[in-house]
Amino acid sequence: MSPNTNMSPNTKSRWDPSCLQLDQTGVARLNGGHRRGRQPSPIRDKFIAGAIDASWVCQASLLGVKALLVGMALWHLKGLRRSNRFTVSNLMLQEWGIQPDAKARALRKLEKAGLIRVERRGKHSPLVTLIVGNRSNGSTVAADSGKPLDSFATLAAGGVAGT
């Protein structure tokens, strides 16, 4: 019986210790290169332009981390688009490390909390409007339009606005 009994018939007949040698990526990993574990944040070179309503952020933070992160991404998009109404695609939020199913859940939570209005358009990306509370008269306004949205609750409940 040969000393190489663990070898399959398709391999070399002699054991070669060089098969255990680490390649360059393995050496780099051992020497402090990329490790598994906590991954670096996918959010790089992102900013939020303009003023953000602190009470909006506080309300969003109560809905969970992903909802808050989606909210911050929405404020980022608002600054880029210079409008309070914009489409929110899966690709835009993947840059923030948000998967499509998490995006959908977070948008539903933000909408239910009254922080955004979402217009779902079938297989197309949703159209989102940021909503900020107007402290002067207690009504709700779109983030940069100044137009009251008091009838929004009526519309959301299936009623007719202005009745």
What tags apply to this protein structure?
34% helix, 4-stranded antiparallel beta sheet, 13% strand, elongated, alpha+beta, disordered C terminus, 6 helices, Arc Repressor Mutant, subunit A, single chain, 163 residues
Beta-strand content bin: 5-15%
Number of helices: 6
Largest sheet: 4 strands, antiparallel
Number of strands: 4
Oligomer state equals single chain
Globally, the shape reads elongated
- Give start-end ranges of low-pLDDT stretches: 145-163
How would you portray this structure in words?
- With 163 residues, the protein is an alpha+beta fold.
- It contains six helices and four strands.
- Strands 1, 2, 3 and 4 form a four-stranded antiparallel β-sheet that branches.
- Strand 3 (124-133) and strand 4 (140-142) form a beta hairpin.
- The protein is elongated.
Question: What does the secondary structure layout of this molecule look like, with pairings?
Answer:
Blueprint: H1 24-30, H2 54-61, H3 65-81, E1 85-87, H4 90-94, H5 100-112, E2 116-121, E3 124-133, E4 140-142, H6 152-156
Antiparallel strand pairs: 1-3, 2-3, 3-4
Helix pairs in contact: 3-5
Short structural description:
The chain has 163 residues and is of the alpha+beta class. It contains 6 helices and 4 strands; from the N terminus they run H-H-H-E-H-H-E-E-E-H. 15% of the residues are buried.
